[in-house]
Amino acid sequence: MEVLLLFPFAVGYLGYLYLNGNMAFVQNSSAYISFMLFLAGFITAVPLLLFNSAAIRIRLATLGFFQYIAPTASFLLAVFVYNEDFNSDKFITFILIWISLFIFSFNSIKKALFNR
């Protein structure tokens, strides 16, 4: 629904860019830039399609758990590689989130093992 609502505005903006000669993909770009922009679509779409095909094959609870891996990896990258500020508020939040995930996982494992 969101795409349907925004589509006319996107087409209008692309028309505006085209008329003003600012469209990088069609006008004033090298073959390399055009190829890279074209390739960016595939690089974006293929992982999303693979994720979608995998997501319909696993339980939603498992999918929800895996959704925490990417933000946690980004958080750890920010703190340990980019030396971002890591204060007590962030530490407490991080710990509470992972404690709740542990409780949820423990409960799911317990159900799977003992409620057959």
Offer a quick outline of the entry:
The protein is mostly helical. It has helices spanning 2-20, 31-55, 60-66, 69-80, 88-114.
Account of the 3D structure:
This protein starts with a helix and ends with a helix. It is mostly helical and 116 residues long. The longest helix has 27 residues, at 88-114. The protein is built from five helices and no strands. The mean pLDDT is 85.
List the defining traits of the structure above.
about 80% helix, 5 helices, about 120 residues
Largest sheet: none
Low-confidence stretches: none
Shape: elongated
| Chain-averaged pLDDT | 85
Give the SSE order as H and E letters. HHHHH
Give the terminus-to-terminus CA distance.
41 Å
Structural class by sheet pairing and helices: mainly alpha
Portion of residues in helices?
A: over 70%
Please outline the helices and strands.
Layout: H1 2-20, H2 31-55, H3 60-66, H4 69-80, H5 88-114
